[in-house]
Design brief:
disordered N terminus; Porin; eight-stranded antiparallel beta barrel; single chain; alpha+beta
């Protein structure tokens, strides 16, 4: 009988069972294998879940850049006006009305302040005479970008001549401009013109403004 095994009795015979092949040892080995398999399966599930969660929360490194809105009313603008005009008032104790049109040129050295000149050519009372009215002005405006609007005021002076007479004058007035875009606008304004010989006149204009 071997000293490495245990004696067993089966069918009246004695036989030796080696330690390594004992049923108890086989049961322990099988139990350990099952426990390890379960642990490996659980670890695999945990790793797969973590990988899926990480992939679902990936972040993009791209940045969204929003282009700044360009101002409609800018410093350094050169403006060219084309307009129709109407006048009404008194001069030398005589009342008159008239219609005409003209051109204007302005420059804004800041967004808010500029200078301008304009010339209006028209007739008065249908008397067959043509009168030329030239004015120079300081201009102050208040841009409202969200509405595309800029109310403005102006003040200056000039002269009117024609029909063998000439008259110097001062003027003050205001208006409103609407910008369709950075290059084109619409405007209306009116000014009070005053001077010697009882000159009291209103000159109103409406037209297109081209911006450069």
């Amino acid at each position: 009988m071997s000293t490495n095994g245990l004696d067993s009795l089966q069918g009246g015979s004695l036989y030796a069972v080696p330690k390594g092949n004992h049923p108890t040892n086989k049961l322990k080995i099988g139990t350990n294998n099952k426990t390890m398999n379960k642990a490996l399966t659980l670890l695999t599930i945990i790793l797969a879940t973590a990988a899926t969660s990480f992939a679902g929360t990936a972040y993009s490194s791209k940045k969204v850049i929003v282009a700044p809105q360009e101002d409609l009313f800018r410093a350094g603008e050169v403006q060219l006006d084309a307009f129709v005009a109407g006048a009404a008032g008194k001069f030398n104790n005589a009342s008159y009305t008239g219609m005409g049109g003209g051109l204007g040129l302005s420059y804004f050295f800041t967004r808010y302040f500029g200078i301008g000149v304009d010339n209006t050519l028209g007739g008065l009372n249908g008397n067959g005479h043509t009168y030329d009215n030239a004015q120079g002005n300081l201009i102050a405006r208040l841009p409202i970008e969200s509405l595309h609007l800029a109310p403005y005021v102006l003040a200056g002076g000039g002269a009117t001549w024609g029909a063998n007479q000439a008259q110097g004058n001062g003027n003050v007035g205001g208006g409103l401009e609407y910008r369709l875009n950075r290059a084109i606008g619409l405007f209306v304004d009116s000014r009070y013109i005053y001077g010697n010989h009882g000159l009291n006149e209103s000159l109103s204009r409406a037209g297109l403004r081209f911006i450069f």
